[in-house]
């Protein structure tokens, strides 16, 4: 019998991600190029926004080999440069050269959640081309630091190969140049779509993209207004898990559990802490560091069970806001109508979130039918649309007929969920999980925005009808006036213009019901036509009543009342008409 | 002879004045409404099938009591309304300037005024609407169809058309006859020595009658209806009958269609139920009857299925429920054969004038 030795060895986080790169979106050359680009762009945007700088982002993808005949996949040089605050030269190599492993307990909304996107891109470049990454950073002190480095995957540490300090001429910012295997031919449409959607959600950024074929894409800044940057916040008791609590306890400097609660949790003051500790039966004066694991487990249970914690506040969130979102939609989608709905902050499992929805209708940019643009923390989500909660709501829960939106109408739906923790279903950051709280807010926001659209559409409809009517009147009435003037022998035209003004309310006082016959040659006798005409007018009425009945905010009683009144009016008019006809008979002799 | 001359009772110029007045009043009332800020409208009898009824007194189809209103306020009505008003205006111009127009002319003329008729049937319909509105045939407002028939005989007319006003003409001066066109339709019937009108269905027989001097032998005015007579011809027959007191006799082919030509002269058509003055209720159909086919042993052809179907249709028509109309319809149905007027040529070219016509005229007295 031979003994097989199994050896265990520790792996570094870099190695862990290297081995599991599929999870992070680096599964194949085209997807990897796309993921690397977006990770770097998102880092740049985050950096600029945190510093309150209007972002200018430059992105370039160039084939490494100038020989154009070479087929994809092939090595590309990806360069992303921003005008952000830059990174302190001391931290530069580590910022990109190590997958951080540590306690990121302070929470705030940001695009990147794990602090590893940039490093992953570099790592991927390194393993596919074995070329160093070129980093440059200027923090505004007149100097720019350029380094070339690789990552020691096992040690989870950077290997700096070259370092130079050059004059920066007063500019600050960071640039990253990665050489990596990619497939631009396949990735191109996703990359362009990503940048276009990024432009929708960040209209305050200038994005310049020069693609592998030398084409330049420029998404221009249309507003200098930026969303208010989020505050850092402590974790909410509902959102904590055992591991997180254990680390908090380890790192705690507080002498008592009472103080510990106040210092490490979101919206927990002395009173709340005291009441909670009473509820959970923990000793307020206990030293946090002395807590045992089992105790920690029951503390977490108690934290999740206690109903009287204050809800998380939204200061740690940075919604885009009505105005900026509107500008972004306007600029990229150029629709005929925009509706925005911003929901008040809400929370799921202790994580605050805000839902923002935009509806873009009509125009020449949007294709026919529904286009869904999903965003989470200002990141466009391009993959797995069918699995996303927004898609499911639009597909299954929204009654489109109710909002009178034609299925072939060009319609863009923009959903943005921002949160300290976006509930992605996968590490790939592509679609949202079905959290009931988020689903509810999305539904409310969508319905609100669609109601605005509905109002717009029905106003458009009636305006169009009135316009059409006035158009018809102004085509024919002058002719009628001209001919009757000739017939009567009058010198001047009659004052028919008043009819064009007075009827502009669109209310036809003597329309169909009185008047049985529309067309000149009629094969049906008027005796039968009268009821036929009546049917015609009552039918759509019945339809609208049915429609209004469906509407929750319109009580059916009221509509019935209105209908009754109308009927009475119609009958009155009929009597009048009969009188009129009598007199005309006599006229004819 | 001169003493026998009859004179027209109602002058054409009077009717023209009445028409001008009606058009003027129509314009006046609409003008007033527009000026007051009210949408003008027009009401006229419905011409739908179910509003057409047979009037036993008038012995013709008339429109019932249903009326339709066309309002300029109604978006669906305003287009035909405008077309109708334009047509009234156009007719007014025609009558005022003494000009005539064909149905096709109307269709094209409208385009000069930005009135868009989508096709001629649409403009024809509007013309019929104006007829119904004014209770007058379109010929009265100088709109004529293309087809024309002919007249011949001792009848002096006086033109009223522009350029010929006051000029007189006797209609026996040209053996091919005279077209019953706009100028004849509007002419005053001044005098005649004729004692009857003979309307024949075919141009061939018309020429034979002129050749054989039927107009002299029978003191007759001869009219070629050229098949189903156009309205101007029916109107002429009406005037000859009503204004000059001339009895009207009708000769058609011996089949169901011939019988119906006669019937339309007598009692009008359903299509013109909105009009009067197009019927001659006292006109007599003197042949060729179904019974003549056997009586005179005329060469005959079998009727086709359509013709037989037509007989069944006409049997349901109230006008065919009595007298000679009913009797001969049944004969046709029994025989299922037809004979043309020319069939008399079997007995010589003049047989129809020498033998058949006097016999039938004599017989007609008993009808």
Describe this structure in words.
The complex is a heterodimer of chains A (589) and B (367). Chain A is of the alpha+beta class. Chain A folds into four domains: 13-219, Heat Shock Protein 90, CATH 3.30.565.10; 237-305, Orthogonal Bundle (Helicase, Ruva Protein, domain 3), CATH 1.10.8.50; 319-456, Ribosomal Protein S5, domain 2 (2-Layer Sandwich), CATH 3.30.230; 510-589, no CATH class. Chain A has helices at 13-19, 29-50, 89-97, 117-129, 184-201, 242-251, 257-264, 270-280, 293-305, 322-333, 389-397, 436-488, 497-502, 526-550, 556-588, and strands at residues 56-63, 74-81, 133-139, 143-152, 157-167, 172-182, 206-210, 216-219, 337-342, 346-348, 351-361, 370-376, 379-381, 411-419. Mean pLDDT of chain A is 80; it is low at 101-105 and 503-589. Chain B is an alpha/beta fold and 367 residues long. Chain B has helices at residues 12-36, 78-97, 103-109, 120-134, 182-185, 203-211, 214-217, 231-243, 256-267, 290-295, 305-315, 323-335, 351-364; strands spanning 41-45, 52-55, 60-63, 67-71, 101-102, 143-144, 150-152, 155-158, 168-170, 178-179, 188-192, 196-200, 220-224, 248-251, 284-287, 301-302, 337-338. Chain B is globular, with a radius of gyration of 22 Å. At the A-B interface, helix 12, helix 13, helix 14 and helix 15 of A face helix 1, strand 4, helix 2 and helix 4 of B.
